[in-house]
């Protein structure tokens, strides 16, 4: 009796231990489950195949090949047993993740479990068994007792002790977790489906049992709401993906041309989104309020077309140049009134105008930097060389390629990249004629510099000439002379890159490096052109301001003469009303700047579309149809079809965006125009790519260049806000047009608002906060913070390196251990072979030890790898 | 699923959504495409299978050098003929979908590259892999010397425990650091 008591005690203890172990194994289970099913399923399939052959050695799918030989022989024994067990397996298809050996061990309890079909249901039973399967490998010595233990535990009916309740709760939670992670498991669908259904059933059945009375109802309600919420989330997710525009179009292109061409369209879509938001800001907060609540057209000089231009203000040619009625509308800066608050809403128009201008830039900065940071996170940063070959091997195929032509190109490019890599590995390339190459490279750079300087001078020259034309009056000149600036800029942008391409053939660079040089040169060209344009514009602004000074003087004379004329007749006559169109007015340089940018955008857009139509479409048509009656093969030979130039197009897009940022302050209509342009571009280019372009010969990867483009966008953003901010801060606004007329500087509007719209103390606080004594320390603090972050990131990098070293040494140790263990296992195996006929049980033990050993090794490697990756993320 | 060829049962659809990385729209599209592949007499079978040749004729797979491997890996057929049921097809699309995790993608990539199904990538697997990547024509093929060099380089880099083969965790470790694996391991219908 005493003995029995003791045994009972021991049993209790063990059960408690069991519970604890289960909790811990629950965590492990997720990991292990992922490894096993693949093996399992494969074995299931192959087992049936090889049944007749009797030699099923190879069919074991083990992670460790070290022990391959051992495993093979072991399998020979186990296979016979597994075959016997197959029928049982089919019965419990849903639970087939236990290894067959383990299953055999549990065979007994399984039968027992079926018999005692008490209230707790089979699912629990199975579940617990499954868990025990996890642990059995490690604790196989106590296996027998545990089996009995479980049975005892099972037999206790409905009475749920708090301990068991806890256990049940844990299980339910675990099931739920399983459901949510099921899609991430590499199992076949049938199995996933069964597991899902079973888990759902289980959760539904036992969720209610967890609470008592009132709380049970509450719990059920909570569960129901949770389910509804999940469904809603899923629907919302579906809805969200359905809302992403052009998804199908882009995917179609992706499947034809690979990911690099698609990356351009994704970039285009991203730009479109940003411009949509900019457009919303300017349209909703500036243009619409002024149009609805501001003074109507014709009420004041700045809102009326002057008398001299009235005759042809509606002509198409004038409107196309954004003159006439277009100039005196909400599209441009000059139309806006300086009235502090407009309409019944007391909308603060000038303030809103200023804040939208600042907000546009701030938002763009935020978005670009955030995207860059995210990309950098995904990239994982440096350390690019450690897996050079493996990446080339394992990740170079683009599975999206669905076009045989692209596939052929890809084959060729992969082969060359392999060969290059091997060559580089074998020897650092020897250049026999290094002097010639050097000379050629210097020459090429010299030529490019000449091109750049020439194009810069050309633009400057043209802009100055156009100013002269403008002074003489535009009507006397031809169309070309009026549009010279824009046309020259567009043409330069079109032909210079081709020239650079030819020049770069001299240099004999590796194609990737050549591409970077090419991109850098085009970038420099565009930037140079843009800045020459701006400098020329600055000259013009100064001219206009001189003009304005003269006009101001004339204005007083004009007014005086007006009053003098009337005074002579009758001193009490009502003040004379002059039609606003007749009042003389200043040149309004802000509107002029806005107009220039708008014209530039329009002509740029036109050239892009026309090049697309002629260069791509017409060429494709000619090549296709003239090919039937031509002396050589046009499709394969000289003209052939054009390729889609990803980098050039991206650069074009980036510069276009730069112009938008620069000009948006003076022409609120620019974002709207750009949205339109991008929208048309999307359709037109999609169509052009699909119908008349051939895949690139060298298929580049998309991901590496993403951040490169983003960095360029950031540089452009900075460079384009620079002149805009300079003009805003240093040049006083025109006296008779725009929302800031009458102020000495544009940003005075902030001061004014602070003084009149906020309580006095606020203004005081603000003036204190903006005094240099406070601002300077704040700046210093920021610099210090940056320095601190920099140094911490450096130290993380160091730690990362050290961990890497540790990983390597660990691996070496591991290797040694593996060898030892393999030896030991081989010895065990020999013993097992001897003892096989009389004692099948011993063999089972061996198997189990094998299992536990491989499992351990697996987890060690996995753990190391995961910790390494974790630290990597920390660093970022 | 089998009763009407063009219609998916609603509860099944929601279960599929829960079990794959696909959206509702994609599943319906997949079902449509799958039904098109089926021959007339197959449609009345409860769980119809599409033979491998037909699967490989899909334009999305047609020019993929690993198409046979992909079909084999995702097939649950007992005959090992690479034929797919609709559920296998969904598994395939899910693993290759946009939102699938790196883990599942790398798992399947490993199995696709494991040509002899022995659980590790050994020299033979790597050689076959290189041949797949460089195409069938002779002018793009590597010489034996180049091949040997390449394979030894790869093993040097990614065979962390130096046992002469690349196992799953080593493979996943290498792949997880690659910048463009996730973006290129994709197939869309």
Automatic annotation (TrEMBL), chain A:
<feature type="compositionally biased region" description="Basic and acidic residues">
    <location>
        <begin position="153"/>
        <end position="166"/>
    </location>
</feature>
<feature type="compositionally biased region" description="Basic and acidic residues">
    <location>
        <begin position="81"/>
        <end position="91"/>
    </location>
</feature>
<keyword id="KW-1133">Transmembrane helix</keyword>
<dbReference type="Pfam" id="PF07810">
    <property type="entry name" value="TMC"/>
</dbReference>
<dbReference type="GO" id="GO:0008381">
    <property type="term" value="F:mechanosensitive monoatomic ion channel activity"/>
</dbReference>
<feature type="compositionally biased region" description="Basic and acidic residues">
    <location>
        <begin position="26"/>
        <end position="69"/>
    </location>
</feature>
<keyword id="KW-0175">Coiled coil</keyword>
<feature type="region of interest" description="Disordered">
    <location>
        <begin position="834"/>
        <end position="855"/>
    </location>
</feature>
<protein>
    <recommendedName>
        <fullName>Transmembrane channel-like protein</fullName>
    </recommendedName>
</protein>
<dbReference type="GO" id="GO:0071260">
    <property type="term" value="P:cellular response to mechanical stimulus"/>
</dbReference>
<feature type="transmembrane region" description="Helical">
    <location>
        <begin position="313"/>
        <end position="335"/>
    </location>
</feature>
<feature type="compositionally biased region" description="Acidic residues">
    <location>
        <begin position="141"/>
        <end position="152"/>
    </location>
</feature>
<dbReference type="GO" id="GO:0060005">
    <property type="term" value="P:vestibular reflex"/>
</dbReference>
<feature type="transmembrane region" description="Helical">
    <location>
        <begin position="765"/>
        <end position="789"/>
    </location>
</feature>
<feature type="transmembrane region" description="Helical">
    <location>
        <begin position="484"/>
        <end position="506"/>
    </location>
</feature>
<feature type="coiled-coil region">
    <location>
        <begin position="793"/>
        <end position="820"/>
    </location>
</feature>
<feature type="transmembrane region" description="Helical">
    <location>
        <begin position="708"/>
        <end position="729"/>
    </location>
</feature>
<feature type="transmembrane region" description="Helical">
    <location>
        <begin position="442"/>
        <end position="463"/>
    </location>
</feature>
<feature type="region of interest" description="Disordered">
    <location>
        <begin position="1"/>
        <end position="166"/>
    </location>
</feature>
<keyword id="KW-0472">Membrane</keyword>
<feature type="compositionally biased region" description="Low complexity">
    <location>
        <begin position="842"/>
        <end position="852"/>
    </location>
</feature>
<feature type="compositionally biased region" description="Basic and acidic residues">
    <location>
        <begin position="101"/>
        <end position="126"/>
    </location>
</feature>
From TrEMBL, chain B:
<keyword id="KW-0677">Repeat</keyword>
<dbReference type="InterPro" id="IPR002048">
    <property type="entry name" value="EF_hand_dom"/>
</dbReference>
<dbReference type="GO" id="GO:0005509">
    <property type="term" value="F:calcium ion binding"/>
</dbReference>
<dbReference type="InterPro" id="IPR051433">
    <property type="entry name" value="CIBP"/>
</dbReference>
<keyword id="KW-0479">Metal-binding</keyword>
<dbReference type="GO" id="GO:0000287">
    <property type="term" value="F:magnesium ion binding"/>
</dbReference>
<dbReference type="Pfam" id="PF13499">
    <property type="entry name" value="EF-hand_7"/>
</dbReference>
<keyword id="KW-0401">Integrin</keyword>
<dbReference type="GO" id="GO:0007229">
    <property type="term" value="P:integrin-mediated signaling pathway"/>
</dbReference>
<keyword id="KW-0460">Magnesium</keyword>
<protein>
    <submittedName>
        <fullName>Calcium and integrin-binding protein 1</fullName>
    </submittedName>
</protein>
<feature type="domain" description="EF-hand">
    <location>
        <begin position="101"/>
        <end position="136"/>
    </location>
</feature>
<dbReference type="InterPro" id="IPR018247">
    <property type="entry name" value="EF_Hand_1_Ca_BS"/>
</dbReference>
<dbReference type="InterPro" id="IPR011992">
    <property type="entry name" value="EF-hand-dom_pair"/>
</dbReference>
<keyword id="KW-0106">Calcium</keyword>
<feature type="domain" description="EF-hand">
    <location>
        <begin position="146"/>
        <end position="181"/>
    </location>
</feature>
């Amino acid at each position: 009796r005493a003995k029995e008591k003791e045994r009972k005690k021991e049993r209790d203890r063990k059960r408690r231990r069991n519970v604890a172990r289960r909790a811990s194994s629950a965590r492990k289970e997720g990991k292990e489950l992922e490894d096993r099913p693949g093996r399992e399923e494969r074995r299931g399939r192959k087992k049936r195949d090889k049944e007749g052959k009797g030699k099923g050695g190879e069919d074991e799918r083990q992670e460790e090949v070290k022990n391959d030989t051992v495993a093979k022989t072991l399998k020979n024994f186990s296979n016979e047993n597994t075959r016997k067990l197959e029928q049982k397996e089919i019965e419990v298809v849903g639970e087939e993740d236990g290894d067959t050996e383990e299953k055999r061990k549990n065979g007994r309890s399984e039968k027992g479990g079926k018999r005692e079909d008490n209230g707790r249901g089979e699912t629990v039973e199975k579940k617990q068994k499954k868990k025990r399967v996890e642990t059995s490998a490690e604790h196989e010595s106590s296996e027998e007792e545990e089996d009995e233990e479980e049975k005892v535990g099972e037999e206790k009916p409905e009475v749920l002790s708090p301990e068991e309740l806890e256990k049940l709760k844990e299980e339910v939670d675990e099931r739920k977790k399983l459901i949510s992670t099921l899609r991430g498991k590499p199992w076949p669908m049938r199995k996933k489906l069964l597991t899902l259904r079973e888990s759902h059933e289980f959760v539904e059945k036992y969720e209610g049992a967890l609470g008592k009375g009132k709380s049970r109802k509450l719990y059920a309600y909570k569960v129901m709401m949770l389910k509804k919420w999940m469904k809603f989330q899923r629907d919302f997710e579906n809805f969200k993906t359905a809302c992403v525009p052009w998804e199908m179009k882009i995917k179609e292109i992706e499947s034809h041309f690979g990911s690099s061409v698609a990356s351009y369209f994704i970039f285009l879509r991203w730009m479109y989104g940003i411009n949509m938001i900019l457009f919303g800001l300017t349209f909703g907060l500036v243009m619409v309020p002024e149009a609805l609540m501001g003074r109507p057209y014709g009420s004041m000089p700045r809102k009326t077309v002057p008398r001299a231009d009235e005759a042809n203000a509606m002509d198409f040619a004038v409107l196309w140049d954004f003159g006439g009625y277009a100039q005196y509308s909400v599209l441009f800066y000059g139309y806006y009134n300086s009235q502090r608050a407009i309409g019944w809403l007391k909308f603060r128009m000038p303030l809103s105008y200023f804040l939208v201008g600042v907000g546009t830039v701030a938002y763009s900065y935020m978005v670009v930097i955030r995207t860059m940071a995210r990309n950098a996170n995904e990239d994982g940063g440096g350390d690019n060389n450690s897996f050079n070959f493996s990446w080339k091997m394992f990740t170079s195929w683009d599975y999206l390629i669905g076009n045989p032509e692209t596939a052929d190109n890809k084959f060729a490019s992969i082969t060359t990249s392999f060969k290059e890599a091997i060559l580089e590995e074998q020897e650092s390339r020897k250049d026999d004629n290094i002097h010639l190459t050097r000379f050629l490279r210097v020459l090429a750079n010299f030529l490019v510099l000449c091109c750049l300087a020439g194009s810069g001078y050309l633009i400057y020259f043209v802009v100055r000439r156009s100013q002269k034309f403008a002074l003489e009056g535009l009507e006397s000149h031809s169309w070309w002379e009026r549009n010279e600036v824009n046309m020259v800029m567009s043409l330069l942008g079109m032909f210079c890159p081709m020239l650079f391409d030819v020049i770069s053939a001299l240099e004999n660079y590796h194609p990737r490096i050549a591409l970077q040089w090419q991109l850098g040169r085009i970038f420099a060209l565009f930037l140079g052109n843009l800045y020459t344009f701006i400098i020329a514009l600055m000259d013009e602004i100064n001219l206009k301001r001189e003009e304005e000074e003269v006009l101001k003087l004339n204005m007083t004379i004009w007014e005086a003469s007006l009053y003098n004329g009337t005074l002579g007749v009758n001193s009490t006559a009502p003040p004379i009303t002059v039609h606003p169109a007749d009042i003389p007015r200043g040149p309004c340089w802000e509107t002029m700047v806005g107009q220039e940018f708008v014209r530039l955008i329009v002509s740029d857009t036109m050239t892009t579309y026309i090049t697309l139509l002629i260069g791509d479409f017409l060429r494709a048509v000619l090549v296709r149809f003239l090919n039937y009656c031509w002396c050589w093969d046009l499709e394969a030979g000289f003209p052939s079809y054009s390729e889609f130039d990803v980098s050039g197009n991206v650069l074009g897009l980036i510069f276009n965006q730069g112009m938008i940022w620069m000009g948006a302050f003076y022409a609120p209509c620019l974002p709207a125009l750009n949205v339109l342009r991008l929208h048309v571009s999307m359709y037109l280019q999609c169509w052009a790519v699909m119908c008349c372009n051939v895949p690139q010969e060298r298929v580049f990867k998309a991901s590496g260049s993403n951040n490169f483009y983003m960095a360029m966008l950031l540089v452009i953003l900075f460079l384009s806000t620079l002149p805009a901010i300079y003009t805003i801060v240093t040049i006083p606004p025109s006296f008779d047009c725009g929302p800031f007329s009458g102020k000495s500087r544009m940003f005075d509007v902030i001061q004014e608002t602070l003084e009149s719209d906020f309580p006095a103390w606020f203004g005081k606080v603000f003036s204190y906060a903006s005094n240099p004594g406070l601002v300077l320390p704040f700046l210093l603090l920021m610099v210090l913070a940056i320095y601190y972050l920099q140094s911490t990131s450096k130290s993380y990098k160091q730690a990362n390196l050290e961990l890497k070293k540790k990983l390597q040494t660990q691996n070496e140790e591991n290797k040694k251990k593996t060898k030892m263990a393999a030896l030991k296992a081989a010895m065990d195996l020999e013993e097992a072979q001897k003892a096989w006929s009389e004692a099948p049980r011993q063999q089972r033990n061996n198997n189990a030890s094998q299992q536990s050993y491989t499992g351990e090794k697996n987890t060690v490697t996995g753990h190391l790898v995961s910790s390494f990756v974790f630290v990597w993320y920390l660093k970022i | 699923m089998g009763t009407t060829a063009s219609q998916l049962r609603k509860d099944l659809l929601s279960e599929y959504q829960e079990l794959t990385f696909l959206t509702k729209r994609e599943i319906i599209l997949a079902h449509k495409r799958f039904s098109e592949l089926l021959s007339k007499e197959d449609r009345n079978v409860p769980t119809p299978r599409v033979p491998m040749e037909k699967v490989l004729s899909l334009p999305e797979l047609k020019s993929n050098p690993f198409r046979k491997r992909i079909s084999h890996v995702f097939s649950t057929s007992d005959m090992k003929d690479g034929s797919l049921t609709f559920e296998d097809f969904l598994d395939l699309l899910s693993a290759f979908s946009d939102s699938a995790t790196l883990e599942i993608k790398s798992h399947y990539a490993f199995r696709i590259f494991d040509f002899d199904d022995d659980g590790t990538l050994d020299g033979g697997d790597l050689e076959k892999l290189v041949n797949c990547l460089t195409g069938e024509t002779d002018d793009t093929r590597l010489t034996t010397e180049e091949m040997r060099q390449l394979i030894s380089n790869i093993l040097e880099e990614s065979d962390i425990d130096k046992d002469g083969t690349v196992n799953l965790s080593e493979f996943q470790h290498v792949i997880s650091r690659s910048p463009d694996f996730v973006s290129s391991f994709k197939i869309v219908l």
